[in-house]
Design brief:
Layout (H helix, E strand, L loop, with lengths): L1 E8 L8 H8 L3 E6 L2 E6 L3 H9 L7 E6 L11 H10 L1
Antiparallel strand pairs: 1-3, 1-4, 2-3
């Protein structure tokens, strides 16, 4: 199982991205470190997760999905998120 870091820019203001957030939270485990990013623990590959994200965003939105590894550092990130990273990476 991998942890992927999903980063997105939703370029159309006023849109409802509830379905995107629900999709990202539907995987085994997740953490939301920043306004437009999630860590997602899943059996999916980065490409498969990206394809799933694309089903919930507009064509003019942008997304990057990359596999996270055990080397990381944070600043200003909440304790629950850093605790999640310690457990999952």
């Amino acid at each position: 199982m991998a942890v992927h870091w999903v980063n997105y820019d939703l370029n159309k203001s006023g849109q409802d991205y509830t379905k995107l957030i629900e999709y990202l939270k539907s995987h085994q485990s997740w953490a939301k470190p920043l306004k437009s990013s999630f860590f997602v623990k899943t059996t999916l590959t980065a490409s498969q997760l990206r394809d799933g994200v694309k089903e919930h965003i507009d064509p003019n939105d942008d997304v990057v999905v990359m596999t996270a590894n055990s080397s990381w550092a944070t600043y200003g990130i909440s304790k629950p998120v850093t605790d999640w990273l310690k457990v999952n990476l």
